[in-house]
Automatic annotation (TrEMBL):
Residues 354-511 form the Helicase C-terminal domain. It comes from Saccharomyces arboricola (strain H-6 / AS 2.3317 / CBS 10644). Its EC number is 3.6.4.13. GO terms for cellular component: intracellular organelle lumen. This is ATP-dependent RNA helicase.
């Protein structure tokens, strides 16, 4: 039988290939830990300084950009928090019996222009969603207030900020016609491009609104082409990912960005996390400095499904106004997860069994549903996503399309597969957390998850890819018993109870079937499992896992998937040393030491994939990587290099310097 042949030949096959992979992955594991607690980037502080120095338009002494102290440490708990900042927050809670706001009432009250009313009415939504009802008017009317808005996934937050932005453009159409007046920032390229498509929907509903042009500035696309578009269209709206936006701002802020009135952070809690927050502060600083009216002219709008009033302290450095309205459509004690999602969890003894459980589940869905089956399945790392996709393709591609989606796929391909999956009635999207937030794929029946997400809030965002726009949906989380603390953490920190729980034990038949479906991917198995170990190592604290139990459990997947539970991941002693595990019982439990002396050169001074030399010490100290390796856009930002090389970009190292934690996971 194929499986047993593979099993017998596997260790020897793996040894040669594994060495390079393992040395690479040694760095990954190291980084996995340290990047969770990293500090301000030296490089960014230099950029920040450079901007100040070169900026001829800088108005000394009047700027939040210059005057705000930058926190030296970026742990969430350690944010510099001036108590007075909270006093400016005005919480407007969810009201049960509030008067309905309709497009017509907004027109009658003079809030909306008739051309914009016409465009939105043509979309034929039955009514405005609660967040749209609650935000449109205050965003437009409150001169001296920033706005935070919280609403559950799939409830139309995008139009909740696009409608007032269009209205503002109409209101100010005679001023600075060819300048950017609204900047929308999103954490992933795909989300930025999706928001751009939503703007185009408004254009298409009323051609008269096309004069309010929009350009997206996202990594992985041709920089020069984007700037040509900026010159040609002279847009009023720019939608961007942080890294690319900073690049553009550093060179063209005077030309396009002196008249910005609004900036929007979609998925604001994500953009205000470590890894993005500095970028957002830099963006905000440049926009404020360049603003022709005043350095506090720009109104900031923060939108997300997962926000609390603490976000305001994180956003304090980028909010300009004296007051901040927190427009809430979720009750204080209500879980942020959408109530229409039927959630369940399937618990296995072994981590690897979750793969068998998911395959069995999909099989059942395909056979039991007489109509289409459209699902998204999330996985913890890029390599595991590819591995899983391969299994699912071998199992199900004759039934329905199986699409692979993560940050290592070229942007062109990503864009076309997003378009395709939006259109498909049936299919499975296999993805990392790059697809967790904001992506609007219509009519997804189910969200499946193998293992835990990259951050707790992403559980809510992942499952929120179903039950959107008034539809029903369900979600299944496949985990092993060592991952159960995650479920408790969801309850404790997010008030989410997964009511349906079942246990799972695979049959010999399904095991054999899946192991055969793995096909050639078994060659990469050690690499894949090490990527998982790295990913889990980085979230031990956040999810209250037991390191002693969770890591060996993940490592044991190697043996389970090779159908020999005794097999351990083969590594060199040097590799284990670098992990700081050569004397640890966990190390011995997870790995088998092999002699790789023939490849000594390679291990003497190895570099990881991203070109950073690894001292090998950070695994133990857990704090030495963040500074240099923070990345800008958490998906794979590449700055369209093929066409950009004529001049050296200040940030053209971004692609090689991003954090390995995110590199692995998105
Ligand atoms: N008033 C409305 N009525 C019904 N559907 C709407 C309405 N407004 C927007 N939609 C649709 O709802 C879907 C979800 O909208 P959107 O992507 O803006 O949700 P979201 O709240 O931003 O979700 P997420 O939190 O996942 O980002 C989209 O397909 C959008 O066209």
């Amino acid at each position: 039988m194929l499986t047993s042949l593979l099993v017998k030949s596997r260790p020897s096959l793996l040894v040669g290939r594994s060495l390079s992979v393992l040395f690479t992955n040694c760095n990954r594991i190291n980084r996995g830990v340290s990047n969770r607690a990293y500090h301000d980037s030296d490089r960014d502080q230099k950029n920040f300084g450079r901007y100040q120095k070169n900026d001829s338009n800088r108005r000394p002494g009047n700027s939040r950009f210059n005057s705000r102290p930058r926190a030296s440490s970026r742990d969430d708990d350690e944010v510099n928090f001036d108590k007075s900042t909270f006093s400016k927050l005005i919480h407007v809670p969810k009201e049960e019996n509030s008067k309905e706001v309709t497009l017509d009432t907004l027109l009658e009250e003079g809030v909306l222009d008739k051309e914009l009313h016409k465009a939105i009415a043509r979309m034929e939504f039955p009514c405005l969603t609660p967040v749209q009802q609650k935000t449109i008017k205050p965003i437009l009317s409150s001169e001296d207030q920033d706005v935070i808005a919280r609403a559950k996934t799939g409830t139309g937050k995008t139009f909740a900020f696009l409608i007032p932005i269009f209205q503002h453009l109409i209101n100010t159409k005679l001023d600075s016609q060819y300048m950017v007046k609204a900047v929308i920032v999103a954490p992933t390229r795909d989300l930025a491009l999706q928001i751009e498509a939503e703007v185009k929907k408004i254009h298409d509903m009323n051609y008269g609104l096309k004069k309010y042009a929009c350009v997206s500035l996202v990594g992985g696309t041709d920089f020069r082409a984007a700037m040509e578009k900026m010159n040609k269209l002279r847009p009023n709206i720019v939608i961007a990912t942080p890294g690319r936006l900073i690049d553009v701002l550093e060179r063209y802020s005077n030309k396009f960005f002196r008249f910005v009135d609004y900036k929007v952070l979609d998925e604001a809690d994500r953009l205000l996390e470590i890894g993005f927050r500095d970028d957002l502060e830099t963006i905000s600083g440049i926009l404020n400095e360049k603003n022709s009216k005043s350095t506090d002219n720009i109104k900031t709008l923060l939108f997300s499904a997962t926000l609390d009033d603490k976000v305001q302290k994180l956003a304090n450095n980028i909010m300009n106004k004296k007051e901040c309205l927190f427009l809430d459509t979720v009750d204080k004690n209500e879980p942020e997860a959408h109530e229409r999602i039927d959630q369940s969890v399937v618990v296995s003894e072994k981590f690897a069994n979750s793969i068998f459980a998911a395959v069995e589940h999909i099989k059942k869905q395909i056979t039991e549903r007489d109509s289409n089956y459209k699902a998204i399945i999330f996985a913890p790392t890029v390599k595991f996503t590819s591995f899983l996709c391969n299994i699912l393709q071998n199992e199900f591609k004759k039934n329905l399309p199986i699409l692979e989606f993560h940050g290592k796929i070229t942007q062109n391909k990503r864009t076309s597969l997003v378009k395709r999956f939006k259109r498909e009635e049936s299919g499975i999207l296999v993805c990392t957390d790059v697809g967790a937030r904001g992506m609007d794929f219509p009519n997804v029946h189910e969200v499946l998850q193998i293992g835990v997400p990259s951050e707790l809030a992403n559980y809510i965002h992942r499952i929120g890819r179903t039950a959107r726009s008034g539809k029903e949906g369900s979600s299944v989380l496949f985990i092993c018993k060592e991952e159960m603390p995650f479920v408790k953490e969801l309850k404790d920190a997010k008030n989410i109870t997964i009511a349906k729980q079942e246990t799972y034990e695979p049959s010999e038949e399904i095991k054999t079937e899946v192991l055969e479906a793995m096909g050639q991917d078994t060659d990469d198995l050690s690499d894949i499992i090490i990527s998982l170990i790295s990913s889990y190592r980085s979230c031990i604290k956040e999810y209250r896992f037991s390191e002693r139990r969770i890591l060996p459990e993940i490592a044991s997947s190697y043996g389970v998937l090779l159908n020999d539970p005794q097999l351990k991941i083969p590594v060199s002693r040097r590799f284990l040393d670098k992990l700081g595990l050569s004397r640890s019982p966990i190390g011995r439990e997870m790995f088998e030491i092999r002699d790789y002396s023939g490849n000594r050169d390679r291990s003497e001074n190895f570099h990881d994939e991203d070109g950073d030399a690894d001292s090998g010490s950070s695994f133990r100290s857990g704090n030495s990587y963040g500074n240099r390796n923070r990345r800008r856009d958490y998906d794979n930002d590449q700055f369209g290099r093929g066409n950009n090389n004529r001049r050296s970009f200040s940030r053209n190292n971004d692609n090689s310097n991003y954090s390995n934690r995110n590199n692995n996971r998105y």
